[in-house]
Structures are given as C-alpha cells and as structure tokens.
C-alpha cells in the first residue's frame, strides 16, 4: 500500500495483490491514487458505452504494470 503522505508524483502505479477481480489493474489504480475501487470499476464499466479500446487498454496495463 502507498503512504498517502507521499507526493502524488512519487507514487508508483502497480497492480493490486489484495483488491482484484481479474488482474488487479483497477484495484491498483485505486490504491495508488487513494480512490474508491468500486467507483473506479464502475467508471470502467460505464466507459463501455463510449467507443474506444477499453479491453485492449486493460490487457496492456495488465502486462506492463508491476505486481504491487
């Protein structure tokens, strides 16, 4: 877990070990920035109403984000 006293630019984006449904990407984003993981997942699911490569972006993030 990140120390939220650490400045935002010094936090490392990572996949979550504890808060994961598939690959831990969205849980890791939520942990890094101190956001609610349910809200991050909800925004991701709602984004499917918009055109774009959401699944492709998730898969790429899954491979390039380090395990936290």
Automatic annotation (TrEMBL):
GO cellular component: plasma membrane
Location in or out of the cell: Cell membrane
Pfam families tied to this protein: PspC
UniProt protein name: PspC domain-containing protein
Organism for this UniProt entry: Corynebacterium hylobatis
Classification via PANTHER family: PHAGE SHOCK PROTEIN C
InterPro entries the UniProt entry points to: Phageshock_PspC_N, PspC
Membrane topology: Single-pass membrane protein
Keyword field contains Iron-sulfur: no
Keywords: Cell membrane, Membrane, Transmembrane, Transmembrane helix
Source superkingdom: Bacteria
Positions of the Phage shock protein PspC N-terminal domain: 11-67
Segments passing through the bilayer: 42-65
Heme in keyword set: no
């Amino acid at each position: 877990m990140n120390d939220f006293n650490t400045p935002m630019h010094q936090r490392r984006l990572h996949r979550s070990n504890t808060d994961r449904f598939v690959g831990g990407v969205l849980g890791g984003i939520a942990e890094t920035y101190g956001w609610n993981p349910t809200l991050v997942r909800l925004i991701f699911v709602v984004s499917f109403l918009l055109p774009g490569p959401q699944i492709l972006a998730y898969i790429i993030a899954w491979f390039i984000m380090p395990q936290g």
